[in-house]
Amino acid sequence: xxxxxxxxxxxxxxxxxxxxxxxxxxxxxxxxxxxxxxxxxxxxxxxxxxxxxxxxxxxxxxxxxxxxxxxxxxxxxxxxxxxxxxxxxxxxxxxxxxxxxxxxxxxxxxxxxxxxxxxxxxxxxxxxxxxxxxxxxxxxxxxxxxxxxxxxxxxxxxxxxxxxxxxxxxxxxxxxxxxxxxxxxxxxxxxxxxxxxxxxxxxxxxxxxxxxxxxxxxxxxxxxxxxxxxxxxxxxxxxxxxxxxxxxxxxxxxxxxxxxxxxxxxxxxxxxxxxxxxxxxxxxxxxxxxxxxxxxxxxxxxxxxxxxxxxxxxxxxxxxxxxxxxxx
Length: 328
Fold this sequence. Notes:
Helix 5 links the parallel strand 4 and strand 5 (about 120-125). The radius of gyration is 22 Å and the shape is elongated. It is about 40% helix and about 25% strand. By secondary structure, it is an alpha/beta fold. It has two domains: about 5-50 and about 95-170, 3-Layer(aba) Sandwich (Rossmann fold), CATH 3.40.50.2300; about 180-310.
């Protein structure tokens, strides 16, 4: 298990020729999902086929951040600018497509095969007679999962399956942001105990999007309302260096000792990257794993003037997406 280097919410598309079944799904799927419902395969395919250029443009924006970083530009201000300038466009990109196998105009597998340029996850809903076909499609890598439509607890099974697929790391994003990490930093994130602690922390803090970077080492994260947090990460061998930096900045001996002991961290590099007129502040630190601990963390709030804000938040994006109507 490894902590995902980049994650964000994405859209979910449902395709089924049964309007009653689609309306049921529209009512029971989580309200914080951007979900669209299609009755006709052609309309669904045409909609998704418009997305690959948008995915490509978004991936290029992220790669350009790395390119500028290699030329000396700080990462944190660039990521914050990317979030502000993108607004909410990235939230509309579809990550999961759920298709009914048995449709008279076109089978679900045929519809999925038409999505040649779309790289999201695919789920097939099957009837009892379709199960062998679904198994074959899964084994050939045509779909990520299949679920019988008549399954008990279909809502729960489908929701869990989609949620897990939404949380899968995108290989291209992983490769992009891996470039900022040292081998030692990446190894820490691959530690199962650390990865699980970070996942739990992300859930507790309500993060819907995050980026892990190595310079400085930490996690820059967004919540549903567009507020930004910075989780600073410090390996134990780096604590003396951070304490020395704090001492050189004029912090008192007690604070310096707390930093050296892993009781507090201070956001010196964050404030330096932001170029803000805000004084760095020490925050209580906690150990992520190990006995004795070998990675410490502290949570800082990034000033709201740097955040995307409520107008560009995922919460507002969902609220302004309109009612869940079936699309012919």
